[in-house]
Amino acid sequence: MLEVAESAATSTARTPVGVPSSPWKYLSKDLPAGLVVFLVALPLCLGISLASGAPLLAGVIAGIVGGLLVSWVSNSPLSVSGPAAGLTSIVLASLATLQSFQAVLAAVVVAGAIQVLMGVLKAGIVGMYFPTSVIRGMLAAIGLTLILKQIPHLVGADADYFEDMTFLQFDGQNTFSAIEKALGGIGAGSALVGLVSLGVLLFWDQTVTKRIRFLRLVPGALVVVLLSIGLNNLLDNAAPVLRIRPQHLVNLPDITSWQDFIGAFSRPDWSALQRPGFVSVAFTIAIVASLESLLSVKAVDKLDPHKRVTPTNRELIAQGVGNIVSGLLGGLPITAVIVRSSANINSGGQTRMSAFFHGILLLVSLLFLESVLNQVPYSALAAVLLVVGYKLTKPALYVTQWRLGWQQFLPFIITILAILFTDLLKGVSVGLAIGIFYILKANYESAYYLSKPAAMQAGPIHLKLSEQVTFLNKASIVKVLDELPDDTQVLIDGTNSSFIDYDVLEAIENFRLAAPERGIRLELRDIPQVQVLGH
Hints:
This protein is mainly alpha-helical. 61% of the residues lie in helices and 5% in strands. The protein has 2 domains: 2-14 and 33-394, no CATH class; 448-525, Transcription Regulator spoIIAA, CATH 3.30.750.
């Protein structure tokens, strides 16, 4: 059955009706989207390297592998893979455990092999069990986090790494104290460029592209980046007092020759396989990277306007292959990442070509565009992410969830709060716990139908069990049996049940054995009898 479902999901992801099928037919949309993703991904790759305590190029290598390789091995048309903020603390801890970055690279390779094995063993089915309310809460929380985290970068008051997505930051600040600190140390030049960039983005999306049709092919983010480079140079020459500080500009490493490029790669230290803690590190990276990837592709499927379905087992294999290659080349661990994927979707990406093109641009930038890209202010890129964040957490989303009732709204809003005040995986875990509570509650309430004879009429109390009766229903059934009045006639009816769990059968058998003492005349219909301990 699982194989059939997986096959169907794969087919759906490849050629659904009315959905882009060929990656070459939509280049006019995919190439601009890939450019936007590249502009967002580049500082994130560099920033995550800094946050992880890894060499600066490790994040860029991971981004290149995610774009050039994972985009083709995966069957997700819109997700973008690369280094993820959620793994920074794990890489830092792994460095402390294994004592060298080369040892961590060996663990990344082994983690990738574990992910491939998980995909072959169909472990991706876990991704099918994330409730919609939790996924929507995750997207909204990421949107809010993006908005809050980019404010310090927008005003030029934050020089730490660019994707510090957890509430408690590595620099000792938290999300809100960082904003408070930023407002007390605004960089005038960066703030000017950031606010102008934000205004241009909004004006471009709302006005320009609607009035001038051919400009729809030009992403607003590209306009903002080019404009920000011009403004940066203008401020340098015309108003030195507003000059943007170097720490608030993109900082690509200087590679001037092929020898520099080859020398930038690190190699795994295979002797680390014998070190204490190696296996634990590899499994931790594999499990966390897999969960984050499954969450991301599930969220991307929700955002996809064509509603394509990503085969999750194939995704685990793709991420595993990506981590094997990234580790061998000296790159950070890879996952599917929702921020870059959201930027891809919001920029009009249609097929995997957009993610592939972003990988090409990362490679080209590393080799040839260092001098140009190092003039881009972080505040301009923060403006791009602010718009992406708003699109993820629009007020209409909250209204929709509220109208669906508490059973959908509570897991949604609690997931948002938990992610805002912890991190992605912890927040989703809390949201899942709330979602499971409502599942248990629904099972508790839907295990049976109880009917009693009308007053002055003969007939039994009829307890009719539902089609599927699991151990989750045991508590409610035991409760209703205990509350039945003494000296009555009772019929427990399982004729419509295709499955009754042993725990429930045991509870019914205990009731049957105790019924004579209560004067209850019991009839069991299509209820298998089981052996109870002590009888």
